[in-house]
Design goal:
2 copies of one chain form a homodimer. The first copy, chain A, is an alpha+beta fold. In chain A, about 40% of the residues lie in helices and about 25% in strands. Chain A contains 12 helices and 13 strands. The first copy, chain A, has a 7-stranded mixed beta sheet, sandwiched between helices. In chain A, strands 3-6-4-5 form a 4-stranded mixed beta sheet. In chain A, strands 1-2 form a two-stranded antiparallel ribbon. In chain A, a hairpin with a 6-residue loop joins strand 1 and strand 2. The first copy, chain A, is globular and about 65 Å long. At the A-B interface, helix 1, strand 2, strand 3, helix 3 and strand 4 of A face helix 1, strand 2, strand 3, helix 3 and strand 4 of B. Strand 3 of chain A pairs antiparallel with strand 2 of chain B.
Chain lengths: ~350, ~350
């Protein structure tokens, strides 16, 4: 590890200067660049909204010990993920990201270089998905590290994808594969435990290579702007949400907002082979990871059969997992054996999960 | 104390429902109300920017043990202050606040009722200064409580008050009185200590009444939209900043952004009698509180003598504390005895302050 600098040596002013050097990179996106009037270095960021566009605003926090474990999360991954989680909310609304501010609370154990790595990871996500970090707040913490990102976006008002709008008979669809993020987390936690129990920690090598797909999904999630662009411009989509707390919770949220029921077919859940292998190693059903694992950042949406046919001709990365039903029919999971049961409103709940540990 | 509910009993969904009930109050501000398309309950908030206006975006965090001590801060005050600190940044830019999101990280010791009190306090500030809470993120914390607010605002591009723009010869001015917030904090810390050391804690009564002005300044700061409205519409103001980390730091920030020096006159610092009394009790010079105490949320600005004359005819709540000088003359504090000395870039620095404790 290179030399580490105590942040107290440079103070808040020195820290902000180093952060500004990393984030004030000239963006190639002319619209973002030309419409930013003031970034880091004033009381607020100042920018020109695009005339005629509707504004989006979201915030997501990442708390050490709750959302991430620094023993197996690099600061670059952490920075990427903090931005990507917020970007995913913008994608789920059918918008385009614009400007971000980051509030970071830093305990004494974190060096200046670690904070720089965090911002490099955040910037990598910003560059890939065209947004800019334009301000923030840096504070000390006497406890754990905490990060809150707030992100603005823009959308055409008529194209915004809300949670409400699903209609009985609609197909329920998801992007990509499900369960991989949770599978990746299980592997990281297992290897940490193996390390802690190893007789020779200096020579310990975690066994990670066979699980690269799941690990990347957990550490470096990709917001699905590729699919949201199709959902807003090529087909008619009734509603959309991103899967951050697990599929089951998000199905409930769409049904609640749309006043509908839903039937989800367990055998249709898209699982990649890495996730199936990992679930197998833990002797757990992979569908459990898909239904109740969090931090997927895939999209869940509903549309008619006709619209799905159109969508399917444009991408192969979407899967039908069920159908919207009348509200009176409830929210059901049809098991692989064909038996229906109530789909619980369960998934990653911060309060019950943490407090029950 | 009324019955307290463990948040795990209601879960994140129940918590968000209770928060939404508090913040989804119908605002009397027609522009805020009519331009909000979606608030809490979707992946992002959605709103229409006012055509022709420039957007502002800021974030400020409040961390337990760093910014606040729950043994002497009520949750309503905490909510007020978290919003007010962000509002102050908007006021310092000459803007009007619009929509806020709150990320709150909640340890197990905090009950549902305490979180509700927090949001009631935040809403009180929102109502008074016309902004709306339109979303957020609730997470558990295994450590301390942490709050990050992100706030959007709007301004006329030509009227925005930046930190840069001060010119040699300009008067340096502040709103209100200085040092009171730090004085209030000193009293709260002293009374906490007295309580901890008291032989009979049950009957202990803190001695707070004589210090009401300073305590209110610390616990319920008021963003200076009254004065920023004058600065943007009635007079020409060269630059402005809000005093959040202490006067001395903010003078340095204005000078750095404007490429100027400054001369601040110690005997001109506006101190209220409560602050003077408190500093006296601690045998400290009250000017130290004014120069280096944080969380004032007053405005610091620069303008010509002619413009100040106009301003003075409109308000009596502004004070001249010095003059902008050429950069080569440095940043000086002229002591009460007439001797100049370099004004240190000192004040509330999270990293040096916390790590030196």
């Amino acid at each position: 590890m290179p030399a580490q600098t105590n942040i107290a040596e440079v103070g808040e002013v020195g820290l902000i200067r180093r952060i500004a050097e990393i984030v004030n990179v000239r963006t190639e996106d002319a619209s973002l660049r030309d419409n930013l009037i003031a970034g880091i270095g004033d009381d607020t960021a100042v920018f020109k909204p695009t005339p005629g566009k509707t504004a989006l605003l979201t915030t997501d926090s990442f708390i050490e010990g709750v959302h991430f474990d620094l023993t197996f999360t690099s600061f670059q991954h952490l920075g990427w993920k903090a931005i990507a989680a917020n970007l995913s909310d913008i994608a789920a609304m059918g918008g385009a990201p614009r400007y971000a501010v980051i509030a970071i609370s830093i305990p004494k154990k974190i060096s200046l270089e670690m904070v720089e790595e965090f911002y490099r990871g955040a910037m990598a996500a910003c560059k890939k998905y065209s947004c800019l970090i334009v301000g923030g707040d840096t504070t000390a913490s006497i406890g754990n590290m905490a990060i809150s990102v707030a992100l603005t976006g823009e959308a055409d008002e008529q194209k915004i994808l809300y949670r409400k709008g699903a209609q009985p008979g609609d197909l329920i669809c998801v992007t990509g594969h499900l369960g991989a993020s949770h599978a990746g987390l299980k592997i990281l936690q297992r290897e940490k435990q193996r390390f802690l129990e190893s007789a020779n920690p200096v020579e310990f090598q975690p066994n990670l290579a066979p699980f690269a797909i799941a690990l990347e999904k957990h550490l470096m999630p990709k917001p699905r702007f590729d699919i949201s662009a199709l959902l807003t411009s090529k087909v008619t989509t009734h509603c959309a949400i991103d899967i951050s707390d697990g599929l089951a919770s998000e199905v409930h949220r769409i049904c609640e907002a749309s006043n509908t029921g839903a039937k989800i077919y367990e055998h249709n859940l898209p699982l990649d082979s890495n996730t199936q292998q990992i679930a197998g190693e833990f002797s757990e059903p992979p569908s459990k990871y898909a239904l109740y694992g969090g931090e997927e950042y895939e999209l869940l949406f509903a549309m008619t059969d006709q619209e799905f046919e159109k969508l399917e001709s444009l991408t192969s990365d979407v899967t039908i997992i069920g159908r919207i039903t009348p509200q009176s029919e409830g929210i059901e999971l049809v098991l692989e054996n064909g038996e229906p049961e109530a789909l619980p409103f369960a998934g990653w709940d911060h309060f019950t999960s943490i407090n029950n540990e």
